[in-house]
Amino acid sequence: MNENMTVMQLPSAIRLCEVGLRDGLQNEKQQLTWQEKVQLVNAMGKAGFPVIEVGSFVSPKAVPQMSNTDQVFSEMERFPGVEYRALIANARGVDRAIACGCEKVKLNVSASTAHNLANLNCTPSQSVAGFAACVEKALAANIGISGSISMAFGSPWDKEIPIQDVREITEAYLAVGINEISLSDASGMAYPTQVVDICREMKASYPQVNWWLHFHNTRGLGIANILAGMQAGFTQFDASFAGVGGCPFVPGAAGNVATEDVLHMCEEMGVETGVDLDKAMDISRSVVDLVGHVTDSYLLRAGKSKDLIRELPVGQIKNQTQK
């Protein structure tokens, strides 16, 4: 090995959250029934996913694809040790979580000051301060609560987001009692060296935070960014079955990082996930059938590397190498 080469430091294990039922399906034209979603979430539990984002409690007029999340929570099987969570926008979302037995909710704010001012007439930190009522209601009902910083690595309005802005939002979350925070690249503008720098700084500055990373594959860098996050010491990542999803604010955007692609990378590198790759691929194949179109999953197109290893006659190997 070249003495100047740096040995890649990777964690022995990571934790994945399957977000396809929420972040993936909310951008699909085909709306799945609650029965179809229940079959998927139950299959995820059997596959070994430790965290599953079942849906969101938001306005059905705004996001009709999520209108049956309550019924999915009421009807699905709950596997021991699996965390089932949902996205909310306000205190009403906490009420819906209480009613259907959801035990974990997540809030979200954009890191883009320009975006937040234009839409809500307040800064991102001011938005987070307004989440205090949600936190109070969730904790009173013994419901876990986390937060997300969308577009923490860049946005269509600001390009790169100043790290100080991300710090201020993090501190605002901590101030209202939220210490589990996800850094999200919804616009797909993150790149590996940036991810390493930001993640190392945020992890060092806020060791009390339980960090997650959420990357979209808009420009093909999603899985590289997850690897960069691992190198920076992060061990919790979101991914979406079959790579469905994508940010509606980015024209022509591809979807999230495909769960099976992440699992395959980890299996090849010896990083434990606790998730059965074959079962995850079966889930993703069924999702492709349900949404009715090809998705951005490399593994569904090419299969696992190990599946290509076959015993060939010596003569055939020679003929193949001569082509």
Q: Strand order across the biggest sheet? A: 7-6-5-4-3-2-1-8
CATH homologous superfamily identity:
Aldolase class I
Q: Unreliable segments (pLDDT under 50, ≥5 consecutive)?
A: 1-5
What is the count of helical runs? 14
Question: Roughly what is the average pLDDT, rounded to an integer?
Answer: 92
> How do the helices and strands follow one another from N- to C-terminus?
EHHEHEHEHHHEHEHEHEHHHH
Provide key terms for this protein.
323 residues, TIM Barrel, eight-stranded parallel β-sheet, disordered N terminus, alpha/beta, 15% strand
Describe this structure in words.
There is one protein chain. The chain has helices at 20-24, 34-47, 69-75, 91-100, 113-120, 124-129, 132-140, 163-175, 192-205, 222-231, 259-269, 277-291, 298-302, 314-322, and strands at residues 15-18, 51-57, 83-88, 104-110, 144-150, 180-185, 210-215, 236-239. It has 323 residues and is an alpha/beta fold. The chain has an 8-stranded parallel beta sheet. It is built from 14 helices and 8 strands.
